Amino acid sequence: MITPSVASVFGVVPSNLFVVRNAGNIADEDALGSLEYAVEHLSTSLIVVMGHSNCGAVKATEGIIAKGGKAGGHIDAIVDKIKPNIQTLPKGHTLSDAVLANAKAATEIVKSESSIVEEAIKSGELKVVTATFDLATKKVSFVS
User: Fold this and answer.
1) Is 137 left (phi over 0), alpha (psi -120 to 50) or beta?
2) Residue 3's pLDDT is what?
3) Is a pLDDT exceeding 90 seen at residue 118?
4) Cβ(65)–Cβ(143) under 8 Å?
5) What are the pLDDT digits (tens) for 78-112?
6) Rounded to whole angstroms, how far apart are CA atoms 140 and 133?
7) What are phi and psi of 56, to 5 degrees?
8) CB-based burial of residue 143 (10 Å sphere; 0-12 exposed, 13-18 middle, 19+ buried)?
């Protein structure tokens, strides 16, 4: 399945967006540094942390949790960031629930682990929100 470009989802030309993508939508050091660059040097005023339906990294993490195993290699670093977000969900949750929980957790990391982002939020120059994208309907749902 080919994921549409973020620019096409929001109906803007690519040069109007600064996009940071990685498996599982995790907020690691590289992603945070990229976002800080966008805020501090490009005057970005909105960060959208967006998970998507049928996220393979979240789905794989759920499988690893169920089997009690490891993914192997550097993939474990991704799984280790996603796993706690899934483990807080009630038994019987859906993949959509897990994707949303993971996106919300990444949003909180972006807001709390970067002094550059925190200051821009406090000054009213930046807003950070969570969203999910449904691949089937092409609909973006904003959560916060």
Assistant:
1) alpha
2) 54
3) yes
4) no
5) 999 999 999 999 999 999 999 999 999 999 999 99
6) 4
7) -65, -35
8) middle
